[in-house]
Write a structure and sequence with these properties.
Elements: H1 2-33, H2 44-47, E1 50-55, E2 58-62, H3 66-73, E3 86-91, E4 97-100, H4 111-118
Antiparallel strand pairs: 1-2, 3-4
Helix pairs in contact: 1-4
Length: about 120
């Protein structure tokens, strides 16, 4: 009887591990698909996504990157606090640095919810 219980537990653990790996890969793929412009294509956001096993049935799958948060949930309009314009570490089509009086609102890609809905 004990051997049967061990076999069942091992099979269940293997299923947990496989599902966690699929969720991890799907989340990375959805995050990568949400990148539409060259300025955000360094790969840092996708590389920040990690999978960490907490216990036999609990995993942390996600990231600590601020850009990952804003890309998923979006943000409101941003204004400079101590300056007259916002400076972005990117260049426009003429090769000039980008300065703006504010940044527009971004709705968010909601890729975390897309992946979660896939496994519900």
């Amino acid at each position: 009887m004990i051997q049967l219980v061990n076999v069942v537990l091992e099979a269940a653990q293997k299923q947990f591990d496989e599902i966690a790996e699929r969720v991890y890969q799907d989340l990375k793929a959805e995050a990568q698909a949400s990148i539409k412009d060259k300025a955000h294509s360094s790969g840092e956001m996708v590389r920040s996504i990690q999978k960490q096993k907490i216990s036999d049935t609990t995993y942390f799958i996600g990231g600590q990157n601020d850009h990952l948060y804003y890309k998923n949930y979006g943000s409101g309009v941003g204004y400079p606090i101590r300056a007259k314009a916002l400076h972005f570490a990117q260049y426009d089509k003429d090769g000039k640095q980008v300065w703006r009086p504010y940044s527009g609102a971004y709705e968010g890609a909601h890729f975390v919810e897309k992946v979660a809905d896939k496994y519900r």
